[in-house]
Amino acid sequence: xxxxxxxxxxxxGDLQLTASGLWLDGHRSRALSFVSHAHTDxxxxxxxxxxxxxxxxxxxxxxxxxxxxxxxxxxxxxxxGSTRIRLLPAGHILGSAMLHATTPDGTLLYTGDFKLRPGLxxxxxxxxxxxxxxxxxxxxxxxxxxxxxxSVIGELLELVRLALASNRQPVVLGYSLGxxxxxxxxxxxxxxxxxxxxxxxxxxxAYVEAGVALGERRLxxxxxxxxxxxxxxxxxxxxxxxxxxxRSKHLAEFDSPVTILASGWAMMPGSRFRYGVDHVLPxxxxxxxxxxxxxxxxxKPKVVFCTHGPREAVDHxxxxxxPAKPAEPDRQMSLFD
Length: 337
Known about the structure:
Layout: E1 8-11, E2 14-17, E3 23-24, E4 33-34, E5 49-51, H1 53-61, E6 68-70, E7 77-79, E8 83-89, E9 97-103, E10 106-110, E11 132-136, H2 149-165, E12 170-173, H3 179-189, E13 194-196, H4 198-209, E14 217-219, H5 233-236, E15 238-241, H6 249-252, E16 258-262, H7 271-275, E17 279-281, H8 289-299, E18 303-307, H9 312-319, E19 324-326
Parallel strand pairs: 3-4, 4-5, 5-6, 10-11, 11-18, 12-15, 12-16, 13-14, 13-15, 16-17, 18-19
Antiparallel strand pairs: 1-2, 2-3, 7-8, 8-9, 9-10
């Protein structure tokens, strides 16, 4: 590093690159912020935003019509303070990006939300070397080691097929943006018909426009599932809906539904009861503990700063030789951030 000043700093809970003034996933309105992806906890109404074209498209669907500078992956872009940035796939949802910055103070990789495991509906993550790594540690404890993806998918398909064979309606639940599209892609690849909730469809349509194979999708209509006009199981197939549908009045009217939630929090004891569903499967769009360790091995940073996870994540990483620190020492990180 060429100077003694910090390469980044916190201000009112937000991260900023010191040399350039670029905010990283600013939570409040900023003059210029990088937006890693289009989940609402990473969006704010900035004066200007930097994001991938897909993130900008999805943000507009969420009614965040910022002035976007749209950067393709691996596109070099200069910003203030002799800083250059480029975006790399983060593997979280479609269009999600890590930011690599080359600054007068050294190089930095900010991951945003990420995962290294491959999926069917998002670009695979491609982290690179950097002096400083800032990474999320949502599942940053050794207890959060997800089972192999193929085994989780196999369990999902078994539950779905068993429900259909028993004339019970399978309802698969996942966040409307990202998780739901991954679930639809899995079901489509397995040859299973899908009905999708309107809150899911608006984002699925954007995925299909971007070239993601989601197959034929039927739009959810309550009368197809309840009452004299309801459709046969082989026509309506699996209903894919947001997690809150598990407690909706419509589901309460279904005849013997089987509810299946896909979430990394399935690893928590009692998660099935916590979410009020029949089954919880650990299919996540975040990295687990081993992937966080793998990320550090790929990036080979001099220091790792941890965000959005339990304070104990730092201790566990340090125990295995990773030079980890909390990104914001004065703020207790929370497991549910």
